[in-house]
Design a protein that fits this description.
Residues 154-181 form a coiled coil. It catalyses: ATP + protein L-histidine = ADP + protein N-phospho-L-histidine. The protein is of the alpha+beta class. It folds into four domains: 3-174, OB fold (Dihydrolipoamide Acetyltransferase, E2P), CATH 2.40.50; 182-281, Beta-Lactamase; 286-358, Helix Hairpins (Orthogonal Bundle); 366-517, Heat Shock Protein 90. Helix content is 44%, strand content 26%. It contains 13 helices and 22 strands. It has helices at residues 50-60, 106-124, 134-142, 146-181, 200-206, 210-213, 224-238, 283-329, 334-358, 370-387, 407-424, 476-487, 513-517, and strands at residues 3-6, 17-20, 24-31, 34-39, 43-46, 62-66, 69-72, 76-80, 85-88, 97-100, 186-190, 195-198, 243-250, 256-268, 271-281, 366-368, 390-396, 403-405, 429-437, 442-448, 491-497, 501-509. Helix 2 runs parallel beside helix 4 and helix 9 packs parallel to helix 12 (476-487).
Length: 518
């Protein structure tokens, strides 16, 4: 936009006022090199030659009507053909001025108005691709007057420039929208592996802030066992290859996020400038796969249990009876008979665990006090804890809501967990039990012991049948525990540090509000 130096009275030595060219609606010739500059609500004086400002008048959208009268066709609001007058009124203005167009053919005025109308529509449009250039080509092809043809060509050039700018802007906006609003994390790297940009999904997924990752390496986000492969795939992409792989990121709070990654090379002017890394969080899919595998194992165990459990119990009963009979008839072998009896009881226990999995249980869900169930369990295992020199400590929040559960099954869960904790503390110690709120509709029961702990790589497999960390365990107890919690609509998480202890957190849904009030 040009700036025009004008005066109020046209006299030498008068104060100079600067007008912006877009404010001008017409330029009226007084005499050679003297002009009146009109705005919609005022007029000023300017001393210059027409040729001196003719070029920028074309560039700014002014159109020469005749040598005595120049108007800014961008501000033509109406055209009276009979009177040969154009009405000049900028947008958002209530005042207007008129200018004579009697010496110019009416088709020229109409053509310019139509062409500038398209230009204004383009300015306001959000989709430049919907506009066609036919009107410009048609008018230019028919015009024989070089002065008018020049005006049309300039309008067309301005139109094409604006359209190209809008298309570029729209393309950039689409890219930014795809980048910023994509639910999957997207990161761009330079050739050195430094993060040059990342979308909000990455920061949300990892817990890091933008300033913590930009212009830095993200190696600290990748678990050590995957880091070497990540660098290998990054180098492959810098060599032009698209690579697809899986990697585990570490959340800022220490958690893990499983990602499926697509590496795509960034090519600028034919040169490989970096790498785009497009991720997809597959943590839920992985958990679903693990649950499916666990469910299939449960199903297999259940089928096996249904087929053989009763058949095992029948001869087992006979064996127990004969062992007891022989014990009364034969002397000197009491220790052997005791071992045989214990092992038969152990077989009976395993069969019982099988039947819990295989046999559909009659479950009656009622609103129960979780603290009451826990206190009953502690009372039941108190003597066993004392024998192992284990102290049981319970802490609870006030006014906890009841849980919707089968009391016997939840008690079985608490027994299994406490038994495992007691057995893990050969030298004795403390087991802390806490009942806490976990949101509006859940409570948490947390067990923390000071036992031998469980290696981290074994924790994901806990709950699988026959997978156990105990010397004489079957893995069925935890499997039953997981199944009970799952059937109650809850979830269980186990964390452990070797030689420091294990924490088990059980999240259970609360009973409906009307049941809690009863």
């Amino acid at each position: 936009m040009q700036k025009i130096p004008v005066t109020r009275d046209g006299k030498k030595g008068s104060d100079i006022i600067i007008l912006h060219s877009d404010e001008v609606v017409k330029i009226e010739s007084v005499k050679e090199k003297e002009y009146i500059i009109h705005t919609v609500n005022d007029k000023y004086y300017w001393a210059a030659s027409l040729e001196g400002f003719e070029e920028w008048m074309y560039e700014e959208g002014y159109r020469l009507i005749d040598q005595m009268n120049v108007v800014n066709m961008n501000h033509v609001a109406a055209y009276d053909v009979k009177k040969g007058l154009v009405t000049l009124q900028p947008e958002n203005e209530t005042l207007s001025k008129a200018a004579s167009a009697a010496r110019i053919h009416k088709d020229h005025i109409v053509n310019v108005m139509n062409m500038l109308g398209e230009l204004k529509k383009l300015d306001k449009s959000s989709d430049p691709d919907e506009f066609q250039d036919d009107i410009f080509e048609s008018i230019l092809a028919q015009e024989e007057d070089s002065r008018f043809a020049r005006s049309y060509a300039m309008i067309q050039a301005i139109y094409e420039k604006k359209k190209a700018e809008k298309q570029l802007e729209q393309s950039e906006q689409r890219y930014k929208s795809l980048f910023r609003h994509n639910p999957d994390p997207i990161i761009s790297f330079d050739r050195n592996g430094y993060c040059t940009s990342a979308n909000p999904a990455l920061f949300s997924m990892t817990g890091y802030m933008e300033e913590e990752l930009l212009h830095k390496s993200i190696s600290h986000l990748i678990v050590p066992e995957h880091l070497e492969h990540w660098h290998e795939y990054f180098d492959d992409t810098l060599n032009g290859q698209t690579r697809h792989y899986e990697v585990t990121f570490r959340h800022k709070n220490g958690g893990a996020v499983e990602l499926s990654i697509l590496n795509v090379p960034i090519v600028v002017n034919g040169q490989l400038n970096g790498v785009y890394m497009i991720g997809k969080d597959i943590s839920e899919r992985k958990r679903a796969e693990e649950m499916l595998i666990r469910s299939e194992k449960l199903s297999i165990v259940g089928q096996l249990a249904a087929g053989v459990a009763h058949e095992i119990r029948n001869p087992l009963t006979s064996l127990k009876g004969f062992v007891q009979l022989m014990r009364t008839k034969v002397t000197g072998y009491d220790s052997y008979f005791e071992i045989m009896k214990d092992e038969l009881e152990r077989i009976n226990f395993i069969v019982s665990e099988f039947l819990v999995i295989a046999k559909p249980q009659s479950v009656s869900y009622q609103a129960k006090d979780a603290l009451h169930i826990l206190q009953n369990t502690v009372a039941l295992l108190g003597s066993q804890a004392m024998i192992h020199n284990v102290e049981l400590i319970t802490r609870t929040e006030d006014s906890l809501p009841k849980i919707n559960c089968d009391e016997n099954q939840i008690k079985q869960v608490f027994i299994n967990i406490l038994n495992n904790s007691i057995e893990s503390m050969q030298e004795g110690g403390t087991i802390r039990m806490e009942l806490l709120r976990a949101g509006d509709h859940y409570i948490m029961v947390r067990f923390t012991d000071e036992g031998c702990g469980i290696p981290e790589d074994r924790i994901p497999r806990l709950g699988e049948p026959f997978y156990t960390t105990k010397e004489k365990g079957t893995g069925l107890g935890l499997m039953v525990t997981f199944k009970i919690i799952e059937n109650h609509g809850g979830r269980m998480q186990i964390r452990s540090v070797v030689n420091r202890g294990t924490t088990v957190e059980i999240i259970l849904p609360t009973a409906p509000e009307h049941d809690n009030q009863g």
